[in-house]
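Hi V.,

You were right to ask for the full record rather than a summary. Here it is.
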Amino acid sequence: ADFTYGEITTMQQAMAAFDRKDFDNAEQLLTTALEDFKRRGRPPPAVAQVLGMRGQVRTDKKDFVNAIRDYDECLAIMEVDGRRPDGTAAYVEFPDTHVNRGLAREGLSDWAGAVDDYSAAIALWGGDSALAEGIDGVNPYVLTFRGNALAAQGLYEQALGDYQIAESIFSRVERNSDMIAQSRANRALALYELGREEESEKIMRSIVKRVPGFTDMHVALAMIAYHKGDLATAETEWDIACNRISSGCSKYRDIDWVRRIRRWPPSLVAIMEQYTVQMGSSMSVSAP
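Predicted structure:
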């Protein structure tokens, strides 16, 4: 049977509420729609669509536990018909839902669970064979997400591989200069944590040469110089980040942001903590 006027209206109202970031109202409307769809025996793909939308709303509300429940139910429906014979996705919503559940799991700091979901999405796009053959169906943003979740578990060697492949795809396919630089920055940070400091610093310097306004790398170079006792370079890089780039460096004064949101590796965070203690209000430093 066709969808009723009421069902269509409820979904339209839910989408409008979501667009204006009225998440409470959007969740209530989607819950009503879901109950109606199930009561009227609507096709499973339609039910899955509502579950996925409510999961996104709940993620935006930071209600990660219930968002994951929605994605679990949604994926259970999609598992029935969502794979082609070769194991790739029959429709885009299948891998996308794995990505969304991965992001919700990150909200609970379930890094291993997030990696599992990102890996499932990558497999549905063709997996390791697609990556090895240079087939460009894998979303490079999701490779970055997986790299970050691996790094959060201390698995920097594995994260490094994801960052490198993401950089390659951004360069060859997306031609997104900002994300190319961001992927290289992530790779440089991972290399530093792996003890490959010279290689890491070389990449950082190449990034700021190409993108002079890349605050993250100027701050990282300041920390590396400080750690080596090169206070003049540390002061110069910090001054560039804070006073010569329009975005400034205010976020980097918050160690929790650097650790939890930007996700710098522990070794650089430790240097920054020492630097922050010693820098004082004038931002000048003394030898470590």
